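Researcher: Can you fold this with zinc ion in place?
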Amino acid sequence: MQKNNNLRKKEKDREIALERIESLFNQAKEVFKKDSSLSDRYVKIANKIAMKTKTKIPAKFKRNFCKHCLSYLKPGINCRIRTKNKNLIYYCMNCKKYTKFGLKKPK
Ligand SMILES: [Zn+2]
């Protein structure tokens, strides 16, 4: 039974982690206008939680930050979006790197 309890605890941990990640991204969005560096900090914390608990960042937030420098991205402000070959190319103005997102999931 010990094993089962551990499994449940892990699931619970991930659930909590996911909630925290979600609220961190929401906060990052809110404070961006006032203090974008604070948004970056929230994104970094969210990533740390995700790594520690082996939780995936929800897909809806994946386009909200730069995977290279972990800064919060706001299209038109610190990031530019281009489309190329059915891919979305996000250009991060902070670290000057590109992040590619597929428009459609590969089969
Ligand atoms: Zn970047």
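Model: Folded with zinc ion in place. The CA atoms of residues 14 and 55 lie 6 Å apart.
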